[in-house]
Amino acid sequence: LKNMIEDINNKLLEGYKQVITDDAEQALDSVLITPKYLPGRFQNYGIFMRDDPGIPTQKMIKQLWYDPEKFEVLLVTQSKISAPNQEGRIIFTDGLEVPGKISDIYPWAKYRTHYEFTKGGISALGYMLVNDEGNREEYERILKSLDYRKSNISFVITANDGDFPNSPDITALAPTDQADQKELEDLLPEIIADLYTEPGYEKYEGVHLERAADAGVFGEMVENWAGPEVAKSTWVVGLRFPAFDPSNSAGAGKFFVTKTRDGWEIWQRYH
Length: 271
Description:
The chain is α+β, with helices and mostly antiparallel strands and 271 residues long. The chain has helices spanning 2-12, 21-28, 102-105, 136-144, 181-195, 216-226, 228-232; strands spanning 17-19, 33-35, 44-51, 59-67, 72-80, 86-87, 91-93, 111-119, 122-130, 146-148, 153-155, 205-211, 234-240, 252-260, 263-269. The chain is globular.
């Protein structure tokens, strides 16, 4: 881990200084591009800025997330550009851009995968250093989920079907009450579209939401997994997918949404 942190600071972030969101977005004259799907193991995050070497009057912004257990890194780099919208393909390789292996530069990583696009006058590059060739589908899902932050929603899903969730940080909680229901209802189409991406989940019905305190056994799950303070700030959302037989549990969606100071955090998809 020590070598990984040193490489992050001395190689990936060389010449960059850490900044806050407002400073980065003001420099870009644009909101940050973030992954709308990101496993909860990528818990460490920072925003960094430097002068653009090609245009010194402009700035380059890097957002960085890393997983200290699997030694994996996600970097999202943004800068202004005068170019039409375009999209590249996802690259997955163990090689460098020049002859050699990625492990020659980063001994703790086996592969790099990246995805580059231009949209709305902003050039964006999603770049990951990873170790599991069998996990390419997840890496691709992360990179393809990169988009402008349309609303104050974040996804920190770790696993489906009841595995122990990535509970929200209790220091970031915000109180919630029935007055928040309309705001959350307005966000649900966006949340559901990004949360349920598998075949058969394109159409849904019967959406209902209730605060964890009123959600019976699922409210008890929230409290048992994440504690009473998180439960006070959490809503349980249920829905059905008509493509599945009613007796099939795959057709019954359920997920937990917690209000934080930054917005809404979706941290567990139970079904």
